[in-house]
TrEMBL record:
PANTHER family, alphabetized: IONOTROPIC GLUTAMATE RECEPTOR
Lineage, broadest ranks: Bacteria, Pseudomonadati, Bacteroidota, Flavobacteriia, Flavobacteriales
Name of this chain's protein: Amino acid ABC transporter substrate-binding protein (PAAT family)
Keywords: Membrane, Transmembrane, Transmembrane helix
Keyword Transport attributed: no
Gene3D superfamilies xrefs: 1.10.287.70, Periplasmic binding protein-like II (3.40.190.10)
UniProt-listed SUPFAM superfamilies: Periplasmic binding protein-like II, Voltage-gated potassium channels
One term under GO cellular component: membrane
Species whose genome carries this gene: Maribacter caenipelagi
Amino acid sequence: MRTLIIVIVLLISISVTSQIDDRKLRIGYTAAAPFIVDNGDYADGLNFWLWKRVAKDLNIEYDMIPMEFPTLLDSLRTGGIDISINPLTITSQRSKEMEFTHSFYASNATIAIAEISSFDRLKSFIGSFLNFEFLSGLLILLFIIFLFGVLGWLFERRKNPDVFRPGGRGLWDGMWWSAVTLTTVGYGDKVPVTKSGKITALVLMFGGLLFISGLTASIASSLTVNQLTNNPDGFNEFKDRAVGTIGNSGTENFLSEHFFKDLHSYPNVPTGLKELNEGKIKAFIYDEPILKYAIQRDSTLHNLKLLPVKFDIQFYAFALPKTHVELEQRFTQRILEIMETEEWDIVLNEYGLAEF
């Protein structure tokens, strides 16, 4: 019985392979420069070059079928196409649904952000002083100056009238003395002579020293937080921000698994980078070589930059339906042979792709 089952499986496999060999292969792809560069009338890129080389060496006839990325994945699962030549990342979930050739390129994900202009930096710097903590601290500081200025004037106005004059001018003298004493400037132009005035000065000096130190620390902390907010350089800093990536991609799964709370999906990289450039999202996260190529080739995206952050190592390969095991083995063998040639290194450099 077991032998019969094995024979049936072999016959089915031979039949499927024979049917594939008797017709043109349906090759699905979607733009993912520099691996697949869609130039309108024709397509180019590293993956196109590799596929054409494999097809030529194996005498394979084929039809190229452009499609959106989600449709591409669905067609692979259902057998609507015979192979995807996109730089698909090999994941455990995808391996359950489709066959992969040997990986021909290793990469990683990174983060693209919009650089902040000098004017925006200035606004942000000024805005950091207009928060509740700073304004409340400033009001308390003014109240302390006023309170001790009044006390100093009350204690000194009779025995020290030349320094703390009567009336409104005397109140101003008290304010001036209080501010100078609190900030430890100490001009020495106004000095209390009464016992109560000196005690008031001592309380103001030591209490003011502690308060000014706390206020300075609060301002420094506010500026530091503001700088970190506008100049993020870590992966985890974006978990609570609006970030974008390609829908149904390995990067989207990675970000979801790492608890990114405000994740936006896009059908392609140009659309996502445009949204980032317009400020609709705070970052766009995807494969580094694809983001780098897109930003360099589009002059409207000069305001975007890639952070020096590398994560989620990815291995690219061609993908086939589960029924195309024998075909996958043939492609894998030829891809490995091509990768061992000097020509492969030359083509990588031509498309600006260094080995990971």
